[in-house]
Every structure is written in C-alpha cells, then in structure tokens.
Design a protein that fits this description.
The protein is built from nine helices and ten strands. The protein is of the alpha+beta class and 246 residues long. Helix 3 packs across helix 4 and helix 7 packs parallel to helix 8.
C-alpha cells in the first residue's frame, strides 16, 4: 500500500519533523473560512498589522462596520490587541504566523480533506537528496489518493489583493514555477499541482474576465491548477479541489 512517505522516497525525499496539527486546523476552521470569505475586509487589517510588525508603531486606518466586527472577534480570540485608538498589533508570534498566512494553509488543508484523500498533511518539511546535494522544502499541503500526490503551494500575498502591476504578475509567475517544480521534483511530474493565492484574478462584474490572462495561460501550460480568491467560498473551493484529482 503506497503512502506519502513511500512515494516521496522514490524521489530520494523524506518527511522531516511533525506536520501541522490537524486538530488545530479544524478547531479554527470557522475563523479561517471567515477570513477567506471576507478577505477584502480582512486584507486592510492584515496590511495594517504587517506594517507595524515591520516598522514598529502602526498608523491608524479607516475602520468601517464590517472591520469592527472582525477586529472585535480577533481581540476576543486574543489574536490581536488594541494599543491606541484604531491601532492594533498581534498578541504574539503564533497569532502573527496564523493571520499572516497560516490560516490559508489550514483552510486549504481542511478543504482538501473534504475531497476524501487517503492522506493529507500541511506545513510539512521534507528533505531531499540529489547526488551529493541535500536540500529542504516545506510543502504547504500535500495529499495522496492511491499513488497520486497532490502538492499545494499557498501564497497569502503581502500586497493589495487586487494589485496587478508587472511586479505582482512577475511574482505570480514565480509562484507558478515553484508549484510546478514541486510536482516535477517530488512526483516526477505525475502528480497534481495547485497554487492557492489570495489574489482576485477574475472580474465577475465584467463577464468573468481574467484580470491576468497570461497567468492562466502559463498555468495551463504548466498543468498547475489556480485556486485564487475567486474560489474561496467553501463549497466552490471543495468542488474545485475535488475536480483537480480527475
């Protein structure tokens, strides 16, 4: 019977250390869903929190009714705290790790489990060897159905979720290449590759026009499935991941 471990071993790769805690991911799935489905609101708070983490004291930012509800919830859960009027910071490193991007890995992991894989792990470190060279990666989500591996790269981008300038398109291109590399390296190109990214890549108000057509074209050539912000509604996400196994 194959396993994630045995399939990786065929590529001179081994699991290292513990993966993300499944119980923890499921215990805060409701919050992860909320962050995903109200990302436009969450993103302004996230940018505010990240700015203060890099530079010290944060600047005040506009607070509307929707974000007040989110802020109240995160304060009650002790992920953030108010330091001045309309100024907030993470309570600790774990809170920052989750809100800065860990929530996306947990969200995708839980959705992947809904597709009923034989195995699924997240935040899993691996060590590989090619000749005399030893390297390491952390795979955000890795799942298995039979002898097929699915490798998911989760990118909570640290820029505006609707930004589509050339620099950001170049970053998305790099994300695609990294995801394709994982499939090539760890599954000999015979697995499934998914890029989950917090970018709004489809303009639903304009007949579902792709905001960055070349990104989708590259993804098609590389055989990488894109799960952008447009697919973060739970049922839609699970269905998209279910289809990616086909």
């Amino acid at each position: 019977m194959p396993s994630i471990e045995s399939l990786l071993a065929k590529r001179n790769t081994q699991l290292v250390g513990a993966s993300g805690n499944s119980a923890t991911a499921h215990s805060r799935l409701a919050l992860s869903k909320s962050l995903a489905e109200s990302y436009q609101t969450f993103n302004s708070l996230r940018l505010h929190l990240e700015s203060q983490s890099r530079k010290g004291e944060p600047k005040s930012f506009s607070v509307d009714t929707k974000i007040k509800v989110l802020i109240k919830s995160l304060i009650e859960l002790e992920y953030i705290k108010e330091i001045k009027a309309n100024q907030y910071k993470y309570t600790n490193h774990e809170a920052r790790s989750y809100l800065a991007g860990g929530w996306l890995e947990e969200f995708i992991y839980c959705a992947m489990q809904e597709t009923q894989p034989d195995e699924a792990l997240y935040q899993q470190k691996v060590q590989w060897q090619v000749g005399k060279v030893t390297g390491a990666n952390e795979i955000d989500v890795i799942a298995r159905k039979g002898d097929i591996l699915s490798l998911v790269s989760c990118k909570a981008c640290h820029w505006n979720y609707r930004s589509h300038n050339q620099r950001d398109r170049d970053k998305l291109k790099a994300f695609l290449l990294e995801t394709d590399y994982w499939d090539t390296h760890f599954s000999s190109g015979a697995g499934r590759a998914v890029l989950a990214v917090t970018q709004d890549l489809i303009d639903e108000s304009n007949n579902n026009t792709k905001r960055s057509p070349t990104i989708f074209a590259r993804a098609e050539i590389l055989n990488v499935d894109i799960v952008s912000l447009d697919f973060f509604q739970w049922d839609t996400l699970v269905e998209r991941l279910r289809k990616h196994w086909d």
